[in-house]
Structures are given as C-alpha cells and as structure tokens.
Amino acid sequence: MSGKASSSQSSIGLSRSSALSHVYIQYPPLRCNVPGSRGLFYDDGNKLILSPTSDQVFSWKTVPFSPLVAPTSDSISEGPILSIRCSLDEKFIAIQRSNHEVQFRHRETGETFSQRCRPESESILGFFWTDCPLCDIVFVKTSGLDLFVYNSELKSLQLVETRKLIVSWYVYTHESRLVLLASGMQCKTFNGFQLSSAGVIRLPRFDMAMAKSEANSKPVLAAEDINIVTVYGRIYCLQVDRVAMLLHSYRFYRDAVIQQGSLPIYSSRIAVSVVDNVVLVHQNDAKVVILYDIYADSRAPISAPLPLLLRGFPRFNTSVSQSSREDSGSSGANVVPDNEAVIYGDDWTFLVPEFICDVANRLLWKIHLDLEAISASSSEVPSVLEFLQRRKLEANKAKQLCLAIARTVILERSPVPMVARAMDVLVTSYSHSVKTGSYLKGIKSEKTSPSSVPHVSSPRSGADVSASRVDSLEKSVKHASAAAAGVDNEYASDSEENPSSEPPTTNLSDLQIFDGNNPLNANGSEQQEAQLTSPAISPEEMYSFVFAPVEEEIVGDPSYLVAIIVEFLHSANSEKVKVHPNLYVLTIQLLVRNERYAELGLFVINKIVEPSKEVALQLLESGRQNFQTRKLGLDMLRQLSLHHDYVLFLVQDGYYLEALRYARKYKVNNVRPSLFLEAAFASNDSQHLAAILRFFSDFIPGFQNTSDHNTYYRILNEMNSSIAA
Amino acid sequence: MGMSAATTAAEGIKFCIFDLRRGQQEGQELDKILFFFPADLPFSAQLSVIGLSEGLITFTRIFSPEAACEVIEAERHSHVFYEAEPDIWMVMVVEKNESEAIWRIDALRKVLKEVHSLFLMFHGSIRTMIEKEPAGGLIRSHLYPFIMDYLSACQKRSLLDNCCWDFLLGKKLQLPSFRDCLKERGTVQMLTVSREAAIEVQSLVRVLESFAGNTQFYSLILFQDLLVSTTLSPVDTINLFTYAVLRLTPRALSSGVSSWSYLRKGSTTSNVATGSILAQSASVSEQNFRSRDTSPPGGDNSHHIARPLQPDRWSKGKDGFLVTDIWGAEASSSTSATPTIWLQQTEERVYVCAYQYRSLTLILLVPVASILGEQGVSAVKQQILENVSFLPVFTEFFFPLLNPSVYSCPKQFGALIATLTYRSCCSLMIK
C-alpha cells in the first residue's frame, strides 16, 4: 500500500485524473428541493427519498440513481412527522406521528387508519416494513418488538407476535433485514433479529466492546456508533469505540456473533458506507476516507487515506458545467452555490449503503469508487487484480483495468513468479465465475438484452452456490421479495471457499441475504450500462487482449513471454479451464522464433500444447525450416483423424504413394486425382505414374473418362516411348 | 616401470589419437601421437599402428575423397576410424573374436564420438589446445587422464574389484558388450510424463531461467537417469545428459563409497582407498607420457588439469547442490571452483550448477560471461534456493507419479502415473 496517488502513477496508463482520491461523488447531485419541505426522510426498504410538506409528500427514487429523476407526490394529512416509510409494495405510506401513533394511508384510495400503543407504559421508537412471511410491518418499542399483519378486509393491522425486550434504541437496515436492539446502562448489550423472507431468526444476545476512559465514567453507546454493513452477502456490524478510537467489527452467523478484529479510526466522527462490497470508513473530521475490502482476512486498508473528491463540479471544471447546468433547474441556474461543494459538511448524513444526504442543501449524492485510481495506487499486482475481480458494479471497467494491468506487467517484464500469481488470480476468478454461472450470465445478458437479468452473487462470495440455488435466486429477484432465500438451512457449513480468510468458525453458517433488494443487484441502471456482470476474463479474452497485443509490442527475447504463457497454462490446467488453440499457436510461433525446436518438441510430445487442427497446421508451417517439427504436425493431423488434410500434406511433401495407401485405408475419397498425378509426373517416374493411374482407374468409377486420365495416360505413353527410344 | 605385467594383455586392443598435420618430417613421427593406449607399448609398435592407420586413411581417400574411411576389417583385427576434427583421427584397433567381430564396429565408433564430444564439452577442441601449446604437452596431458577416466566410467561398477588392472589394460577394456551395442549412444532416455507434470516442470524451468534477465540460462532436469526437460540444443543435451548419467545422478553418486557423505574431506580420503589403484596407474602412465614430452616442463606442471570424468569426485552438499573439487579450489577460499563446460551450439562457456533433491537432478547452466565469477555463481545459487523453496513440494508431487515402484502411490495420483519409456534400444548393427 504505497501512499502514491493516481497522479504519481503512470505505469498502467490509466491515471487520467489528477485528483488524489479513490472515492468520488459525481456532480450534479439529486436535488430534493420542494417548497415548504419539512425535512428529508430515507426509506431504505424502497430506496426512496421522501420530503413531506404540510399536505403532501414528495418521493424520489434513488435507484437507479439519476439527478434528473422527477419526484412523485402523495397528499397526506397535516400533523407532525417523526418518520415516514412506504410499504414494500408501495401501496401504503406509513407516518409515525408521535411516540404512540403510526398513521397509515392507502396511496390510491386515500383511506387512512392508525395504530397506537399504550402511551403510559411504552413508546414507539420506530417501525419498518418487512418481507418476512410472518408479518408485514414491525414496530420497535421500548418494550420490544410488535409484529403486525395488514388485514385488507378489516383495513387495519393485526398483531401476530410480540417479542418482549427492553430497548433503548435500535438500528435496522433493510438490506441486511437485521434489527439490532440496544439495551443496558451503556446500551452495549444487543438483541438481534433477522426478519427475512426465510423467516425470523433470533441472534444470541451479545455485548459490544467498550473501552473505559476513566475508572468511574462509563461511555454510553449511541445509535450512530453502530453500522450494519453488508458485503459479499455477509453481514457485519461496525461499532465505533470513541474512547479506544477503534472500529470494532462483528460478523453475524446464524447462531453466533463473532468479533472479527478492529480497525483504527482517526476522527471522532466517522461514517461507514459500502460501495460495491468495499467498506468506506469516512473520517469526517480529517475529511478523508479509508477503504477496506473485508473479503480477505487482512484488515489492512486497500489504500492510503485520501479525501473524497467532488467530480465535475462547475467551479473546478467548466467544460463539465456546460452540460450539467441544464438540470439544475431550480432558481439561479447560473450560480452554483459554493456551499454545495462542501465536503464532509456538518449536515451530511450517510445513508445505507452508498448515499450521502446533504440535509441543509437538500442534496443527495451517490458515492462511487475510482477503480483506476485504486488500482494505480498499489504495486502489488496480484492483490490489485484480486480486488478488481471482486468488483461487480463496474464490471466492465474492472475487466478492462485487469486486462491493462496484465498487459503492463508482461511488457515491463516483471518477475515471472509475480506474473504467475497474477495469471493465477485471473484464471481462478474466471473458473469461479463459470462455476457460479455469473460469467455466462453476463455474456448472455450482454448478447440478448441489457434488461433486468440480475447478477446474483459475486464469483467469490457465491462460489458454492449450486445451479439450483442460482435459479432460485433468479426467481427470487424476479418476484421481488417473495421467494428470497435468506438464511437457509442448506448452508450447513460456512460457505466461504477461501479458507485462509476465515476465522476459526467454519462450522458457523452465515447470516445471508439473497433477495431482490440486495445491494449487489439493486443498482440495475449501472449494470445496464456496463452490461457485464462479472469482470472475469476468459482464456479467449486473455489471448485476444493480453497475449496477442503483448506479442506485437514486446521487444527482445520472446522466451519471457513463453514463460508467462506456461504459467498461464499452469493455472488453467489446475483450474481445469480450457485454453483456446490460438494461444498454443502463439506459443509455437514464439519458440520457433528462437529456433528452440527441441523444446517445441517437448511441448508437443508432452501435450503441454494440446493437439488441435490449428496447432497441427502451425507446426507444419513452422516446420518448413525444421523437419522434426513438420513431422510432429503431420503426426498430429493423423492422430486427430484429419485424414483429408493428412493426405494433402503427404502429397505436398512428395509422399504420394504413402498418401494413396493412407487414403485407401481411411476412405478419403475427396482428394483430387490430379494432385497425385502431378506429383508422380513431377518425380518423373513412369512406374509410379502408372501405378497411380491404375489406382484411380480401379477405385474411382468413371475415372477413365475424365480429362485427367486422358492427359496423364498420354503423358505416360510418351514417357514410356521415350524410354524405349 | 611397473607396467610390465600388463604388456601381454595390451595386445587385445589399441586406441590412439593422432594429428596428421604433425610429425611430417622424418624422425619427428612421435609428434603425431596425441594419445596412445596402452601407453606402455614401445614407441615403435605405437608408430607402426599409427603408420598403418595413416596409410589406410590416405589410401582409401583416393577412392572416396568425400567420405573418409570408417572401418577396415583385417583378418585378425578390426580398425575403427573416426575423424574427430579435421586431420585429427581417433583409431581403435580391436582384436577379432569369433562371435563379436562385426556387430560392435558401429558401437565402437559411437564410443569414439562420445569420447570426443565429452572432451569438447569440457576442454574445447583438440585443435585449439594444440594451437595453444604447439609442443603438444598440453593436449597430451589432458587427453590421457580424460580418456582413461572415460573408460573407467564405463566400468564403474567393478571399481572395487581387484582386477581393475585388467579393465584398463587388455581385453577387459570395456568394449561395448552385446548389450551395450543395443543401447545406442548419442541418444537420451526421456521420461514420458503426464501433461500436468510436464506443465509443472516447464513452469519450474521457466521460473529458474527467468532469473537470467537478458542473458540466456539453460537447464536440464533429470529424474533418476531419465531426462525430463531440457532447454539446451540437442547436441549439448546429449553430452550433458551422458555426463550426468555417468557422474551426477543419484545412482552415479551412490556408486561411489562416500557419495552420500556430504563431507568432502571424507570423500577425498575414501578416494585414496578406492581409487588409489586407478590413480596410481593413471599417474604412472601420465608420467610415462610426459617423460616423452619434448617440451620443457616449465609452467606446465603447475597447470591444473581438470579430470571431469574422474569417478567419485562429486558429492551432494548440505544445501542440495552437487559439489566437486575436480575443477580445483579457489585460491582465496576453501570452496571448490564451480565447474564450467563449453556449449557446442552457442560456443559459450557456462557454469554448471547442479541441484539435487532426492531423485531429481536439476542442472542450471549460467553463461560465464553473464555473471561475475564465483560470487555471481553463489548469487545464482542463492536465487535458486530462494525460488525453488517449493521444490520439495514439487518433487513430492512428482515422486509417486514418476516412480510408482519405489513409492507407494496414493490413489489421486493414479491418473497421473506416467509410463517410463526408453527411447532407443534398437540399433542392431549388421552390415
């Protein structure tokens, strides 16, 4: 992890922005400005930004994210608003009016009803809609959870279950379906429930770690110190310990919560976002962001702390402002207020998983990763490739970057073991993506339509997902929230395929989330742009975009490239990935260029170069200077039962009698007699010519009436007469 | 001279090397002789053999100016000729024996060729050496021990035998037996491996050779006495393979008494015990040869003559590298000088770094020009050690599949088991 930023890095030729940043927000933002707005609310179940006024509520879709999206509005009745969420089928709007009352309004009919609690003994902390089969909506109260079903006949909620608990505050994210209920003096004792489409799972109660500042003072944990994070289909909780200045991480399994280690923090205010399974820890005071890829066991950050960049802001880049101006339709389009450009302002609220809401300016920003900058900032090529291969949101960009990196390391003649590891990363990733189907799916969606075919799981996180599982996932996606798998008993054991990255908890099964609103596949728009769902690189692409271009550019001894190809074959062989014959042809050309015929022989005999017609023809071509090599090519044709070609080459080499015998034995009927006759004539041997004429007369019906026969019969007579004379 | 006992036996075979460009003046005929076996034959007898051979060569040239004479069958002797270098002839005169007379001629020519190829590999061409020191002392002092070592190499198994006098002298000079004639010289025995194993090997080879950077390293890998991989040209492969099978493979090492002891001191002392008779005979003969040298002894005596074919001089070091003191010791340190050989294809001199792990012998050839002397060699060795740290794993992986008879073979390797095939074995030489 060198501290180098993109600007100081030139090797890959990717660094095009001069900005020292790995994460950026793109100007313009989504402006959620309506007159009379009484605040902004985020409904993460439906990914909506809601802005109520006195008699209306405006909502903007954040997925797909577009600054130009127009709000829809619903009328609501007057009254205080503590929180507001739409039901998952978007038929109802639920508004928490007070600590004791939640009001429901049917969006189409306008019918309303309310649900209250006993004001003397409990108060409502909040509520959320759920796709759990047991209930439709959950109230979180100081006395526990209330699970309700909506009864459409009675037009009211029916209580189906109550979980009695003392709750100080709670945290819930829809993407994890997990609600954490804090209790205790320090609010560090937690009860957790996952209410997914697979049912309700109660997690064991656990305590979070809190360092003590002094002997008698005990810090109290606040809701904003807890972040539920969903990466690679796993659920973590990141907890800020302000005294120790650490970010503790916990991983949730079906029946256990296990602390996973801690990350240092450098700011008293931090926020956590997740973009494309990368965890972003915003150090608000320091105004920098640190990236972690929690897939690997390492807790080392991906790169050095660097600020968040605002891209395309008019003040910095006038050319962009021209095009971006038109959308800022609100008053004063020509004057972009400076305060919009404040990064890590006090009014910033970080929304799950990847949005920033500037409450004061009523702006919504989406956070993006700058993959170029990240990949350019590290010289550890294999780990960069691993990182890129795990990216899904910008799969195409990640793929192009991987190809560029692969080309560069070869052209720079990096040490062979290092390039070998890089090749191994790419081949392994491809192999996994083929096994999980995501590679083929990407191709399919690319070819058919960039429609809503969702990608299901990253090639790594879902490597063990069976085909049926993929199918079920597809269905679950199509039916929105109906048939999501959630936590599943099929996962008898932990499903990670990378044992080194695992804590000693392999008998635990992860809390999993596989459903339609999974962030992995929620961002349809970007996938449609990228079309690819996996950055995996097939052997064909490795040939076309890495080996072939490199072969043209590389200077000097080609044996280095042969070494790299051998390493690639090594990886492909151990992953049982089939290699395109083009690569073998290239290998032969490179060996021949160095006149290393003996090694070429070894390659062919040991089948390192797998037999194919392309390979055989290349051997024949390269064998013009080396008889042994040509022989290898001929033998390969014969072994592949390419009888026709074999016969043709035999004739070409002058072995026409042998060719005839072979043609007869293997019933090769479609060679032209004239070829043999010409060859025999060229050898000036009348006996051979006679033998061939006789052969064709005997075995090809009607040959005696052809012009070939007549011509060569005459020639034969002339030859004989000249001998006689 | 203590050789008198051998004179009777010497009639069975005569082996000489002579240079037609030398000794053309009357009275200087002895100058022609570069090597003669048996060395104790009177010069007159030696000269008569060479004179006859020269006469036959010159005579047959009249009829076949392009292709020189290869063999002359006389009533009681066969004369086998091989023109190793222009005007430098190797001749073997073998007493005929009823049953073996005809078929071994080609095998004998192959022996002559092999001797010369190996000499080329270690010392360069005979002509170059003659030109270096026209008096001929240098070439003679190299040829004699080299050929005697070579002949003894063919006889390594009876080394401890008391009759080792006989194999050097007389009929027991290891002429190719009927079995040897079936084994063609000048070929290599390849190990046929599965694709997986072949890729593993290639991967190892490429990684090793990639240390070289811009210069070209070469490598040769053997499993026991079988060739697994080579990046040398065919001719160099054959020579080095022949040498490796004679002296470097585990079997060759273990044929000596002390081969598994990595203490070189132990090795040398045991040499005294086992090879003393041979050494004596060689040195006596050498003296015999040198005494005739017309050149002044001068600096020649101090010149160290490497005897690469001398038996039991290689041993396996603690680090897995094979070491020898054949090439002398470095003046500054006690470590042995790294062996060097000539590659015929590229005409460059290369260091030989041989690394052995169990049955696997890996020979890396590093051009002398590309690195800085012994320090460079040890740097290369260090790199090998660092980068082949996976070699144990690698060979573990290979053992069951390469040698199923020795190691019990786990089932998962069943598919990978390679068959051992010996290419060669078929050159019955009936003319």
TrEMBL record, chain A:
Positions of the Regulator of MON1-CCZ1 complex N-terminal domain: 40-157
GO BP annotations listed: regulation of autophagy
Pfam families (alphabetical): RMC1_C, RMC1_N
Segments of this protein annotated with the region Disordered: 444-470, 484-526
Biased composition (Low complexity): 449-461
InterPro entries named in the record: RMC1, RMC1_C, RMC1_N
Signal peptide range in chain numbering: none
One GO CC annotation: Mon1-Ccz1 complex
Occurrences of domain Mic1 (ranges): 523-698
Protein name according to UniProt: Mic1 domain-containing protein
Source organism of the structure: Castanea mollissima (Chinese chestnut)
From TrEMBL, chain B:
Highest taxon above the source species: Eukaryota
InterPro entries associated with the record: Ccz1, CCZ1/INTU/HSP4_longin_1
Region of interest: Disordered: 283-313
The CCZ1/INTU/HSP4 first Longin domain, residue ranges: 15-124
Coiled-coil ranges from the UniProt annotation: none
GO cellular component: Mon1-Ccz1 complex
Any GO BP annotation: vesicle-mediated transport
Family: Belongs to the CCZ1 family.
Name the UniProt record assigns to this protein: CCZ1/INTU/HSP4 first Longin domain-containing protein
